[in-house]
Amino acid sequence: MDLNAITDQERIRRQKLAELRERGIDPYPARCERTHTAKQAKAAFERGELGPDDIVALVGRIMTRRIMGKASFAHIEDGSGRIQIHVRRDLLGEETYNWFFKKMLDIGDIIGVKGPIFRTRTGEITCEVREITLLTKTLHPLPDKWHGLTDVETRYRHRYVDLMVNPEVREIFVKRAKLVRAIRDYLDSEGFLEVETPILQPIYGGAAARPFTTYHNELEQELYLRISFELYLKRLIVGGYERVYEIGRDFRNEGVSFKHNPEFTQLEFYEAYTDYHGVMRRAEELISYAVEQVNGSLKLTFQGHEIDFTPPWPRVPLRDAIHEKTGIDIMQYRGDADGLRKAMRDIGGNPNPEAGWGKLVDSLLSSYVEETLIQPTFIVDYPVDISPLAKRSPENPDIAERFEGFIGGMEICNAFSELNDPLDQLERFLEQGRALAAGDEEAHPVDEDFILALRFGMPPTGGFGMGIDRLTMIVTDKPSIREVILFPHLRTKLQGVT
RNA sequence: GGGGCGCUAGCUCAACUGGUAGAGCAGCGGACUCUUAAUCCGCGGGUUGGGGGUUCGAGUCCUCCGCGCCUCACCA
After folding, report:
1. How far is CA A52 from the centre of its chain?
2. Within 10 Å of residue A187's Cβ, how many Cβ atoms?
């Protein structure tokens, strides 16, 4: 539990460190030799390119050992994988074998070996060690070679140990990188420009969330860590770029859960001269492309559910989705929050007494509908009052042209026909400002410069935001967002109690 | 923030209604030239998350605190 404690095992390793230095061996040499990775050496041998006279130089961490009197086996592991080494006394000499290899080296040490590659009687490709060099002495013992490290708290707090001994964890972040790469490939090939916008913002916006606050000393100014990129990316559309995107970190000062981390990775793209229908088509194309690139197939298993990403995905009006799950027709209570609250209580719900119609509708969605949306599904047409940056439906001014994409029972993305009417946008900001003043801490503050940008004219635009972490959860079949974030947020352990 | 569960050796886990804290791996010493969870013999290793309490006696019961997990609330 306490990895900082000096145990008897570490004390022994520190003694070895001193003994190595006494004998003139640098336990942390500056240079090393390598001709092949473990994987390359095995592949070259398989192809017949390495004969008994070809010497390879390998490096890696000692992961297992089977020590015997005059010849031993071990596995070393580098970034490409493991390879077995065979260490013989008659090839290395008495001192190197008995003292250096058997006494001074430990599991976890990083070494270099040189020698030819051969195949053992049991068929394993193995390096016959002629030279062995210490590259890094390890002082802390590794976790159990068989059970590995399973304690989630230790795995997250000391992720390097988790990665070291759990190759399947390393694989998660390889997949994550492939996913992000595929998203970039798609957007780049469609003519989107990747941009970077401020993380430190004087006014936060683009989402309903409480921000982290910080302070610039020289400017004597309070700043916020962004909760979304939206208002900056739309300024770029005003400026004349037709297709822009950003992949980066958002910060939201809210609770943590299996699908919430205080900082998380978001993709947002904005595309001029399209609407939310166009964005829906692009969203299913983008996501299915990225999933197929990572997964090799449009079908995968997430938490026991077979999920099929093949487009097109169903478009279900929010009104219908809620009606199907609850029997409540939200449009029947339009503008009648109290009536809707009563209907919610009638089906056993516990509606927020402060919430307006839109927020109640949203809570119906998250309480009754969201977890049932396993297959990729677009829920479309949301209440305007919880969509302050989305364009109104021409057919119904209470409804915004907005959709959210759900996969595996989680909201994955959120998009709309962007509101480009500056006066309507100002009115919605003011509405939000009143909510903020009334105590809704997640409402939008007014961004006057953004209104000015809209007054210069933003073309009809579709915008899209997606949680990369959640999509990674789906693709790697992980039940918690912490499994797909290398260093998830945990409370800091304090030294000394009370 | 509320509720529930958990925290024992470096790692993975035991320890019945309170009665001497154990095992496997890892480590240390020894044997062993095709092993791969190597095997065999022997040995050491603990402030049972922390403080306080009840008791002849606490890993176990009570209490406060810390951290984690689940859940509810919250959450575009």
Report:
1. 45
2. 21
Protein-proximal positions, strand B, CB < 7 A: 1, 7-13, 24-29, 31-39, 44-45, 49-51, 65-76
Find the DSSP H helices in A327-366: 337-346, 357-364
Closest to A282 in 3D by CA, of A407, A420, A189, A208: A189
Q: Can you give the C-alpha Rg of chain A in angstroms?
A: 29
Q: Does residue A275 lie in a domain region?
A: yes
Looking at the structure, do residues A231 and A273 belong to the same domain, yes or no?
Answer: yes
Note if the pTM is more than 0.90: yes
> Do strands A410-417 and A461-467 pair parallel, antiparallel, or not at all (unpaired)?
antiparallel
CA of A140 to C1' of B8 (A): 21
Instruction: Measure the CA–CA gap between A250 and A267, rounded to whole angstroms.
Output: 10
The stretch A7-29 carries a mean pLDDT of: 94
3-state secondary structure A61-107: EEEEEECCCCEEEEEEEECCEEEEEEEEHHHHCHHHHHHHHHHHCCC
Q: Which residue is closest, via its CA, to the C1' of B68?
A: A153
For A35-52, how does the pLDDT look when each residue is reduced to its tens digit (9 = 90+)?
Answer: 999 999 999 999 999 999
Nucleotide nearest to A11 (CA to C1'): B27
Average pLDDT over residues A411-418: 96
Q: Is residue A362 part of a domain?
A: no
Structural domain containing residue A225: 164-314+375-483
Q: What is the pLDDT of residue A323?
A: 93
Provide the CA A31 to C1' B58 distance, Å, integer. 55
Q: What is the ipTM of this complex?
A: 0.91
| A125-129 vs A81-88, strand pairing mode | parallel
